[in-house]
Amino acid sequence: MFFGLGVLRGLMVTLKNFVTSYFMPPDRGGLFTVEYPEKRLPVIERFRNFPFLVYDKDPENPRCVACEICANECPTKCIYIEKDTDPNKKPLRRPAIFDIDITVCMNCGICEEVCPFDSIYMDHPFEVASSDRLEKLLFHKNDLLKSNDYFHKIRPTHAAAIDARRRAVEEKKKSAAVKPSETGQPPKAQNGGKP
Amino acid sequence: MPKSYTVQNTDLLDTQTLEVNFGPQHPSTHGVFRMFVELDGEVIVTLKPVMGYLHRNHEQIAENLTYLGIMPYTDRLDYFNAMTNNLGYAMAVEKLAGITVPERAQYIRVIVSEFTRLINHLSLVGFLLNDLGAFFTPILYAFREREKILDVFEEISGSRMMCNYLRFGGVKCDLSPAVLETMKKITRNFPKFLDEFEALLSKNEILCMRCQNVGVLPKELAVNSSITGPVLRASGINYDIRKVDRYSLYDRFRFRVPLGRKGDTYDRYYVRVLEMRESVKILEQALQDIPVGEILNPKTAPFAKAPRNFKPPVGEDYGRIESPKGELGYYVVSDGTPQPWRYHIRAPSFINLTILEDICLGHKVADAIIILGSLDIVLGEVDR
Question: Is A67 an 8 Å CB contact of chain B?
């Protein structure tokens, strides 16, 4: 073996890769990157970025009941919630303030796991870069509220499973509605809140 | 190898040594790591590693979190190998709380940790070649394969690198048949890629000349400084925690532990290439045998919904795994509250870094760069 054979064999590999990257399909050694701003790859369904809130019919009555479980369980404590009150200062089961500081959020998805009301989920849009870190990167309630249809659009299978489960719970409640007391109380509502 | 290097006596000229600070912003130090080097010409006389530029108070933060809340933080330790970091932590807590893991979940854990090993060794070899001056051709070939695996990780966990995938008593989501098929395809094609990669690198004369007999780590020094992982095995010591502890399901799979002969940089490179081949073997077996069943122990499933109800009994435990970089251990002390009383990590990168001076002395500056590269450190784990 003479000196330099290894280098020459290596150069053959680079030549082969140079050729295949132009003329082969992506799974056989061709290029599978795309030129990003013009072309985009489809986002994988389970991809998680920043949280958003789901509402069913109107944004005034979101699924969120401001129980603060997500705010307590968030490892980085990036969620801030205040309960809404009616004119008589009686607390209502919806948030008045729901802020997520996405400069702090680390996209772990624990909020969506612990939420007992199927209210908070991880969103798909990732182009949130901004030159204003105080206003644009602090998401308020109005930025976060998105419809259930949107949830179906970004995560079809997940949303369908959640809807089926919610429907089953509703039916169960309807059939048990003979006892009038607990209507409208989602399961385990009193359990969470403060640890 | 000299324990200390004395300045060569020159009769002709009165010379001095030169003090150089490599880093913390040097591209070859793989992050914010500083090497304080004293040079005689180009030869290293002393070398002091200076760490702590990326200290993020991980252990103290973890002591104020729930056990589940620590899981996403462990992803950020060694950000190349989120899955194995999760696995080590999950195993420590499972030992502490006495949780068993269903079989399918165990298989999934083995599969994802072996894929993680592939990712780590691929990127290590790529970066090592970058340090050697083979700018970006090998690393882009390696990253091309890594990308396919990261796509699978995104599909199963939702994130490419910060997976946060394991849970106490199982894993977060199940693998769909389509994902299993993709994994099988990657595993099938991987040996072909490795052959090509080796044709490019292993017999390349420039790589051999730069790496052979550079940074020899003797057996005794490796054992005495508690080096673990591929760096130890490259010195010829047969110690793999997958074989020693036989944790998870590693006693079911047939695989061998590749060993080096000399313990130089080339051996450290080549042991990793061979380890990738063994990982592919494990993956083939695991993907073939994976059973159907539950993925989360039903006893611990409620704790994923309510992490504050998860209170391990009072006690302490140490869980360790063979992470791609070495022995990754988590020491957790519980006082019966939802938060750990003490939480400590034995980071392989940090401990493997302690021998850097011993194996660099007497070599040139350019060799120090590749010795550091072949030790495979990630600063997120060194400084924590």
Answer: no
